[in-house]
Amino acid sequence: MPTAAIKENAFENIPSIKAKTLRINLNPNIYGTFAEIGAGQETARHFFRAGGASGTIAKAMSAYDKAFSDAIYGSEEDGRYVTQARLKRMLNHEMQLVEERISRDSNPDYLFFTYANTVATIDFSKRYKGHGWVGIRFQLDPQQKEYDEIVFHVRFKQNEARLQQETLGILGVNLIYGAYFKFHKPKKLLKYLYDHIDKDTLEIDMVNFTGPNFKDVDNRLMSLQLIKNDMTDAVMFGPDGNNLLPAAALYKKNILALRGSFRPVTKVNMDMFKKSYDIFIREQTVEYENTIVVFEITLSNLRASGEIDEQDFMDRAELLCSLGHTVLISKFQEYYKLVEYFNNYTKAKIGLTMGVNNLIDIFDEKYYRHLSGGILEAFGKLFFKDLKVYLYPMKDPNTGQIMTSNNLKVHPRMKELYKFFKYNGKVMDIIDYDPDVTHIFSRDVLKKIMNGEEGWEEELPEGIAEIIKNKKLFTRKEETVPKKEKERA
Q1: Interhelix angle for 374-382 vs 415-423, to 10°?
Q2: Is 152 helix (H, G, I), strand (E, B) or coil?
Q3: Mind telling me which InterPro entries this protein's record contains (predicted)?
Q4: CATH classification of 9-217, choosing from 3.40.50.970, 3.90.950.20, 3.30.930.10, 3.40.50.300?
Q5: pLDDT tens across 345-371, in order?
């Protein structure tokens, strides 16, 4: 059992920042360094002010000048300083110094840590709000050879650099405190990062836990916590299961997004993806090496059957990652909000792959009553600049007719608006679809899996049925299988 594990009964109510820093300072074993760049030495300041810091702080430094910083940590290939790579260099360098300079023979019980941040606060013109990387590398047992690590990315929302600095200082205290006293409850640790911080002032949009004490932590599940706890609007993870920073993954990229429940991912999902991608990649200005495909699941879809089922989420993520796809979990029920989000990071081409029902929903006015400009305001954001919808046909279950952009039915009041976007090339039919898979719906496949029926395997992409069977995914029966929820436009 790690020596930092202490009963928390007396501390379950939110302790003050001074109480947190004092508790760490008065622990004779917790010992390390602070390296803060870009927003003062706000975290170290709290520890100095609390008193008793001489037994905790080995060093506190801030290499503000770029040349001096490069001399200490080395230079980055891209020349940037507020990056995850820079933070990792800082953590590596500072921990190496602690190990070299502090004798284990003289201090056998020390639990080493190094806390670091590299940030850019709001600029003078107030055009860029600021962002940063924050992390801690630490031990929970003096015999621990491999360190534990928590790293995350923040976006500032306050309009003054001073306020952002103060927020960062509190955040740093919460992180160090959580690392030592809440490490065994990583979900709660994430929530406690906001102790004494208003969520309107700071966004955490990526986090990764690594190390021996976090070996059972799935970082995709930690991403989900960021969304559930209103820490951010969207999170991403790659095929390897590691969380991605959306800003880095989407920056200046052409984006093709496919929304769905993927419960489970089916042949029709993959046909939609492959056929729309073939069209998208041939569009003018779209280059293969500068294009990303995103499979998006909305939070409302995860909540379709009530509270979010984390195991169900992991089942979906497991399958999409096994197919080599990047996954986005978002709060954006309306498509125009998703497009707005993408436009924060790219001015390149955006494609949305969707079925007929989803496009019909986009032209339903009820989803835009909360906007002062109504549907026109939403469409101004949705069809902004270089966006195109790739429409997958649907077979009418009653008539057998194939529904496309040419014969779908929108509300009479919306007909002319629909024609405008249709004839201006904003909606393109996928014509080389596979007619043999149009009857497949995820909800029907899921029902068969849960009821132990046969034949569902043929409706899934190659290899997916084996994964579901081997890992027993989607096998928990529910009282009712939720009807397919319509995603808002």
Answers
A1: 10
A2: strand
A3: Rossmann-like_a/b/a_fold
A4: 3.90.950.20
A5: 999 999 999 999 999 999 988 888 888
